[in-house]
Structures are given as C-alpha cells and as structure tokens.
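All the exercises in this workshop are built on plain-text protein records. Sequence and backbone structure share a record, each on its own labelled line. The question running through the whole workshop is how a given chain folds. The record below serves as our worked example for the rest of this section.
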Amino acid sequence: MINFKAQVGINTSNPQGTLDVNGRTLGDSYLIDGVNSISTDNYYLLTRSTDTTPVGKVKKLDVSLRNVAPVNMYNITIQNVQQDEVVNLNTNLETGKYVVAIVGAVFSGAALNRNSDGSFGAYYNEITKVTVGSNTYHAINLDFKGGETTSLQKGTWNLSLVVYEKVLVKDWGNYAGSVSSASSYKGASTTTPAGLQ
C-alpha cells in the first residue's frame, strides 16, 4: 500500500496547507447567509485570524459549547441599600477580559428627598475599577445626585448589564473632544474614527 500526501494551491505556487486558496471563495447563499438577523438558537461565529501560521486561519466559535457568549446580558439586584448609594460594587468581571456597560438602573423601595440645599438631580451610574490582589475588576457606582432616602430608609437597585468579551471588541483608543461655554457647554468628538461616523 502506498500513501501519498500532497498540498494543493490555487493561485499560489507555495501552498501552506492541504488546500491553500489565494483569493476569494464563493459560497451559495444557503451556506453563507448575507442577511443579519437576530439569532434564536445556538450559532457559530467565524473569525479570520492574522496571528496564525499561515495567516488567515478561520476559527469557529461554537456558542453552545461555551459558558460565555461573545455578548452577555444579566441582571443584578442590590438590596438593603442605605441612602441610595452603591460604591465600588465589585462585579468580579476582569477588566482584561470584558467590556461592561450598564444599560438599565432602577432604584425602588424607598422615598427620596432633596438634600438640604434644595437640589435634586437625576441618578448617575458609573463603571469604575477595583483591584483585588493582582487582578483588576469592573466595579459599579450608583447614586442620586442631591438626593437621599427619607428617614434613612433602605432601598433596592435593579441593574441590567451587558458584558462583551474583550477579544471580540475593536479598541479605537482615545479620541479628542471638547466643550465650549460659548455654546452652552455643548461639544463633540473632533476625531471620531472613520467607520464609526
């Protein structure tokens, strides 16, 4: 018995794999769907890598086999909150692995009064960081600016978080923006990355 091994190249004289295609490939629409739609089932995510040998290896991400999806959403209920303030709530989500966004925050269960200076503003929510040992985690701050609960009552915050895997997020870095008092402190980013505009 004689076994033959060969590498076939299309548009290349130096194939780097069993089949090496240098150029575009065409797949029928029933195999590769060009329409974006909401997925209601487990799905595969294909990514083309530039850090492989050969460059261009396609990697398959099977969401059904993973505990973490590329985009995750979950809710947090924080009870017995004194004076509506939450300071540095550790989410246990590492800053090096995830991007976290608060998409909903509702405070309930306690009446709110204005502070003694008469001011009362909307609540703010903020993603910040905490360090535990050698790890840095996303943390959450919540508060009603200028407000406090009546008679030191305790209330409840209900949060909705969206968590993105950082390896699937393109980091554009820092871009400049400014505000001007001449325009009622309005402003805009002056160098929004091309493609996001």
The CA atoms of residues 119 and 167 lie 43 Å apart.
